[in-house]
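yo, Vitamin B12 transporter is done. seq:
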Amino acid sequence: MKKTVLAIAVVSQLPCAFYSYADSSNADTMVVTANRFEQKIKETIEPVEVITKQDINAIQATSLVDVLKHLPGVQIANQGGLGQSAELYLQGRSSSNTLFLLNGIRIGSATSGSTDLSAIPLKGIERIEVLRGPRAAVYGSDAVSGVVNLITTASPSNRSGVSASVGSNKYFDTNAYFSVADDVSWLNMSVTHQQNDGFDVKTNSPNIHDSDNDGVLSQYILADVGRKLSDSLTLKLNGYYQRKNSDYDYGQSSNGADQTDSDLYNVGLITEYKVDPSYQSHLTVATNQDSAEFHGQGATPNTISTNRDSFSWDNRYKLNQVLVVTGGFDWYRDRVDNGSIEYLSDKRRNTAGYLGGYLSLGDFSAEGNIRRDKNSAYGYVTTNQIASAYRLSDDLRITMSYGESFKAPTFNQLYWPTQCFGSGGCYSGNPSLVPEKTKTSELAFEGTYYGAELRLAAYRSRVKDMIDSLSNENVDRVDIQGMEFVSKFETGSLYHTVVYDFLDAKNSSTDKQLRRRARHSVKWDTEYLYGAWQVKLSYLFQGKRYEDTRNQKVLGGYGLVDLATSYMFDNGVKVGGRVANLLDREYQTALGYNTADREYYLNISYDL
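structure:
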């Protein structure tokens, strides 16, 4: 707690140190996640963070977790190191309440209802857009606390390059990419191999097979191709394939070392039609598969394979300089195929229509969205979302928003057959489950002060019919209240981003804190640029958390420092190094699961 108070005290004194700095170039950054169509980031009312390829390279990230953990409202719980299970908490809600998209196409497992963060590639990603706040009225289920959109497509160009990295625990990563383009067509491709021997993530496990190191081996390919058929019509095809083998520690007696072999692919065909600036239409057809084979928990491997086919039609019409209308249609079908688990039902369908509008009148702007979903498993759900913003002065804007959202029960929660796990008890699905429903409101002030960008926000989410993970019943109510402070500023040649988050996430039925959520979080990133040199120093503090729902098992707070530096030569060669957990802190984000000690990485890249 003393560290948190100190950090807040330092933040409160920052204005006196501000030099004149305003990142005005960001105001014209284009984003697509807020309303499914391009708009300037300054026009969005809900907060959107944009992480570019350059940002990813600056911190020399090895996983998506390395990138997301620095963002406002984000907390991460790791069950080990690279390739291990990781849970994202965005504004107090778990990973399954954040919608993950790849080029605007929904990804993630239909059985577990969440996205494997370790299976998402970084090489080949051009930018990541992270929207905080409910967006179910635009996207449907899962967009409860936010949306993470990973975008691989780039502006058509001719470029290519290779890179390689080595590091602690026998880490090795190599990537090759190329892009070719002319006036009407383009092709981008990225191929990556990544491996790491890891470390023993659970040293006190009763399973004798858990005493080994838990590593990962992964290969993936990303590609997108497009052609401009006419001035108004463009056709795009993008795809992603990954094969991964990872070790993990189950913690119970088993028939051998725990391993998972997984294959994932995602393919999308997108048609874009544009009639001058007033009308745009996108038609998307996609399919993806998430197949996993689990070893060690039985005499034979346990295989679960899920498929999703989807179709969407999105439209945007600019009526005049004041009003823009959006609307469309979504359909997807989930299937559980070729699995060794015999679910009570192996498919479900979802059909939805949505309508939205954006109004801009001088200093005032507003937006509203409504969506109606029909699901074959749980029936109809209607969600609404409204938001407004008013510019009080050139340097200050106030925003208010309210949104309804829902989280659909997963296949496992609905249809898992009764199965017992010895001392772990029994588990079975419940076909009578209804979606979790959430109502969220937020008030925020945004502006500049002494040249610094500032955002101060307070939000509250109320959840009903929350599904108990043990009994699989709609029993709990949750009340989440939070505040966030974000500032970006410059002192001399140093660029800073400071984040403070306060989170009070309680089960209203028991008045206990939700597990693995810290009440206090501080992040401070500092970047230094000098000629061809780039240095990035990051600090992350997380307060104490509870591992259990009764708040009897405490996970202590911790502070981490990461350091990355690189040098760019004139011939296109770039060399860099990174030290993660510079102070070699021992900490846990999930009880009983070790995290990495101090780690070292070296990398080299060459852009042709």
